[in-house]
Input
Amino acid sequence: MVFCQGKTTEQILSILRLMRERHATVLATRASEEVARAVQEAFPEAEYNPRARTLVIRSPAAATVVHKDHTVLVVCAGTADIPVAEEAVVTAETMGCHVERLYDVGVAGIHRLLDHSAQLASADVIIVVAGMEGALPSVVGGLVHCPVIAVPTSVGYGASFQGLAALLTMLNCCAPGVVVVNIDNGFGAGYFASIIVKKS
Amino acid sequence: MVFCQGKTTEQILSILRLMRERHATVLATRASEEVARAVQEAFPEAEYNPRARTLVIRSPAAATVVHKDHTVLVVCAGTADIPVAEEAVVTAETMGCHVERLYDVGVAGIHRLLDHSAQLASADVIIVVAGMEGALPSVVGGLVHCPVIAVPTSVGYGASFQGLAALLTMLNCCAPGVVVVNIDNGFGAGYFASIIVKKS
Amino acid sequence: MVFCQGKTTEQILSILRLMRERHATVLATRASEEVARAVQEAFPEAEYNPRARTLVIRSPAAATVVHKDHTVLVVCAGTADIPVAEEAVVTAETMGCHVERLYDVGVAGIHRLLDHSAQLASADVIIVVAGMEGALPSVVGGLVHCPVIAVPTSVGYGASFQGLAALLTMLNCCAPGVVVVNIDNGFGAGYFASIIVKKS
Amino acid sequence: MVFCQGKTTEQILSILRLMRERHATVLATRASEEVARAVQEAFPEAEYNPRARTLVIRSPAAATVVHKDHTVLVVCAGTADIPVAEEAVVTAETMGCHVERLYDVGVAGIHRLLDHSAQLASADVIIVVAGMEGALPSVVGGLVHCPVIAVPTSVGYGASFQGLAALLTMLNCCAPGVVVVNIDNGFGAGYFASIIVKKS
Amino acid sequence: MVFCQGKTTEQILSILRLMRERHATVLATRASEEVARAVQEAFPEAEYNPRARTLVIRSPAAATVVHKDHTVLVVCAGTADIPVAEEAVVTAETMGCHVERLYDVGVAGIHRLLDHSAQLASADVIIVVAGMEGALPSVVGGLVHCPVIAVPTSVGYGASFQGLAALLTMLNCCAPGVVVVNIDNGFGAGYFASIIVKKS
Amino acid sequence: MVFCQGKTTEQILSILRLMRERHATVLATRASEEVARAVQEAFPEAEYNPRARTLVIRSPAAATVVHKDHTVLVVCAGTADIPVAEEAVVTAETMGCHVERLYDVGVAGIHRLLDHSAQLASADVIIVVAGMEGALPSVVGGLVHCPVIAVPTSVGYGASFQGLAALLTMLNCCAPGVVVVNIDNGFGAGYFASIIVKKS
Amino acid sequence: MVFCQGKTTEQILSILRLMRERHATVLATRASEEVARAVQEAFPEAEYNPRARTLVIRSPAAATVVHKDHTVLVVCAGTADIPVAEEAVVTAETMGCHVERLYDVGVAGIHRLLDHSAQLASADVIIVVAGMEGALPSVVGGLVHCPVIAVPTSVGYGASFQGLAALLTMLNCCAPGVVVVNIDNGFGAGYFASIIVKKS
Amino acid sequence: MVFCQGKTTEQILSILRLMRERHATVLATRASEEVARAVQEAFPEAEYNPRARTLVIRSPAAATVVHKDHTVLVVCAGTADIPVAEEAVVTAETMGCHVERLYDVGVAGIHRLLDHSAQLASADVIIVVAGMEGALPSVVGGLVHCPVIAVPTSVGYGASFQGLAALLTMLNCCAPGVVVVNIDNGFGAGYFASIIVKKS
Output
């Protein structure tokens, strides 16, 4: 995996070349459109997901082994949180997970969430992405018995302080079974979900 | 009303004497047991509520006019939030409101809250008291159409930072119709609910 | 209502189309001029208020029922706070309130405020918008008996920390009857004022 | 589970009685010695662990099913972090996990940690408890492929700001596969580890 | 002047002995009752003001020259702010100023303040002491043309953050002619007022 | 005085027109070059100081009465602090003060400052402008007996946190006789110095 | 070395026994008087320095090699900073350094510091201990060419925020050649000074 | 040395001219490419290092005395930290040190660091540059006996808070022998390393 933010296009390309030699599949996150164009020129097989800002470079031979018996469910509170949720989705899929999405089910309309109780109950790991007050993981954590990974996002304004409010909410979650990753760290959540699934 | 914290017992007594001359009913909040004893010695009619840490001094003649047609519902997330919730209850009752309680319905067990949907829907003003992640007002705010007053409490540990986490959560509440008062300010919430009821 | 900030123009348009089917009136806040142009192309009846950065889409048939007997007064400290105040005004008007404005009455010239004592006294709900030190709600709250909704703004520099100073001031307000919404949240204040008026 | 901090002894006892009726095993955390004495009087079978400040009440019939094939390894940086580590140990054991301890292996003496590479590699889930700079999870996360749960502690002084420094360190962990819980939340880490093990 | 807080009684006594040799008048601030007793034993002429927590040791010969033509007015918002206000009063008086008090005129009851417009207008320097939201200096600063020294106090709870809220309010004061000293620094304000008076 | 930041050019022009009618001299601060051009078109007599970012509009008849017997000394630590220092200079001069400058005398080269001991000793009021660690007012305050007004600037990087470090330094100044204004508030310091001089 | 704070007396004793076997000299810091008594009972040769709160246990045979040609100078701003300064002194001496003290030379009386210019100039490493605004290292750093280690202390009140203000000041020090350790970390400064001296 | 950030190109040029007259070698840091071009036009001998953003102007006659017997080792955690590391390298080299680099050895891959144990052990001073969680200095500090200078960088996102997380980590470092400079202050670290080397 390569975290593109804060690196020059040249640095990214040379890291990708090194990794490409060693691994059948390489994932780059936080890739701007400019970076994506340069990478796709160098690696025509690279797939760019502009919403998730991810690049996946895969050998044609690399048949991804999907863990079909286990489901990672990515839940997301609002429209503006989708880029982070998609980063989690792409990461988990690239690592061979079967992923489902449940988007736009913020706590202010709790019945939209409760309408999907069965889907929540059948998931093996749940990633919950939310900005602003970040209350969704607390509710989801109280509804299920599987591991819940909470991802605060920098979505919000004023007293959200670029995701700090959502981060604190999630760290203080009164439902047990909820852990937290860094603000906007969809990759980290997707990766962690994958290693739980692989353990199973 | 008198806020006792930070004042000496003598200061409190002399303020109470002044107010007693002018008003039929006087409310003192944040009264320690020591203060309560001194006040009850001076004003034998003073009622002390040790959970709410409130003192109410009322003229025998002062028949409290209760606004029976309107209900202030005080909702509280956890056992440790009860003192702040009770301060809100006593304040609203002292100001003539009809008050109902709905305690221990934190978001980690959302169905306990949803079981009381009818009670929530019939309230005219709702006060929601919560510490730790403070997510309850977001859920309540999404379920009702009446004004919701959110009270963060200093209940919690670690990254709750003495109520800061709950405060930020409530300020960033994505449900409209939710306003916030200071950390542990049950009095402020009860007072505000009362003036809404009086307007009706 | 749609909060435009952080959403793409396409996302906003598709949300507006969905909401338009269900509601006679739709309000969009934090709409940039670019968003406004795109929305007005799709919905020619949309009215854009550039100061408030709001878009209102209303069915010709939708005669707004105005609650004429009740007045929401929007008070604002300085010139730079006007955009947030206007967001509150547009929100409350769209929800059927009779709204009055009292602008540029900051606490440093207290007599400008006191000259409007009658207008303050006759309001049913007051929204007070202020940046920098955010002291205006404390003074207004001490002058009236109706509910006061305080809106801190991000106006200021240095130790205002993008509205944090005003927010803390308002949360610590020593006048009872004052509640607070998020920094720059004119919409939240206007919405809350409307549901109080509707309760009356 | 019962979180004792912030509750009165009476509240704790009445909650325990309720839970005891429904569950074969009950765990209480953050129990002071005073609380422990009162609980042991009411429930003579209660086991108190003074280092972890936990109380476990177990039915004689309740044969704990231990997941022997999976190991939860609790790693701890310094002597002062042991109480939090022990809270994690007791929680995971109470929930039926096989738990191992690896204590006093802070990053300032990296070879003490590396001497246990085999133990680290064979664990199924690792809980890493650290205060002060909280760097241990980053190193452990880089050495293993299993899920790592990082627990910042309030151990430290000065710029540790009661665990904030360790918390931020862990959230910014550059090793993937590391998630974080609240400061001093040994219980949360133990619980989360258990549900991963149960999934396996 | 000696700042007693954080020093042992012995250190204070030895510093006072040194200063006493060189100066006709010595002022010690933040003196606890225990320190006061020890100092009065050593210096029987020491006057202790328990509200201000100050000790003044003066030579019988030291006739304090009072600047009678100039008035330092110490204004204070609430009862709990009085100790800090008194520290300012004692400091300015010890340095030879004519001092007047105007206490308990917080902004929530603005008319109590305005009733003393003449006294405010005739002052040469005004010290304004306020905790909680700390809004009083903004109002006073708008009413007068003389220098205003604002003293935030640690009075308050919750989001007052031990005086931080009041401090930020005062630093962002939109009235010109207002400067700020440290939280609870009544001494600093009294001293600064004195050197302005001496310049005149 | 007009604070231009956060206002549109049109708002600034209309405020200036109003003020121009009432006052012989008008000062506008934080004026960008774009604002300056627009103002100078409307008021050809307006003088723009690009370093201080100030505009002064003065009636030809308005002979500024200069208080020649008193000197305001503006001291500044580094080159990057000069814009704030100049804002103080222009403000004090516009208000009729005799102003002297002592620039580039930061504490890291204490002898440059001490070389000007006589100039420091002869000043009636001193304004000290400093960013980064903001230590200069502490040293100056210890060298003189006149009032010292400290102005923290947002100059610095990293842990200067946009002037917060300098602000805290100045508030904790152990030299008595030092007061503080908001970060980058050269105007406030110049204004305050002027009213002290006018009192004299 | 053993850091006693946060450890039980038994833990400290067992760590000391282990270390005593391996090392001729052992240093324990942050030792309360209670801890000291217990340690001196177990190790009668232990020397307790109550001001520094340190315990030194030394083999009679352990002739401390003093690096006589190099001087570590410990400079301290105020009386209340002495305990931290002494911790640095004891640490450096225990590690074999020749240490000199220069106490009570805060920046508010810069000439007291300058009177010792020769002593400053002849030092090989300087440790500067200061609380409140923490400005002393900036001045010292500008006077000398040797390494300066700055130690912020938690001495102060209000906006010193338990040493945060001094810490930020020192991190933003504009004099080159100054580095910083944690708040109150006299040990760290003494240790670092020693390894510089040993390198020489 | 000249710190270019926050200064105009003209100010930089005039400072460089002054310094050039007095010193054989001048170093300018934080020089943008635009500044670099202007300086190289005025001083054709100026060498610009775009990664380090440094300019070095050296007299042809100025034979740099290199302290060959002592090595300053600059260690850096990730690719994005290189600019700060290079600033340290250029500074130390300009001051006559022999410098070695050890880049891209972050704690998440501890064996890359341990593979260079010999290089670490043979260094005389080590500068460790790291962003995100900033854990590298703790590990390095535990491996070596020489002075370690930790430089936090602003590299990271979310809860890294522009380098605050790394800064706190390094200040709380449990390995002795580690000191800290400001965020991104490669110059300060390089300078401090040089004066240690010169002392030797």
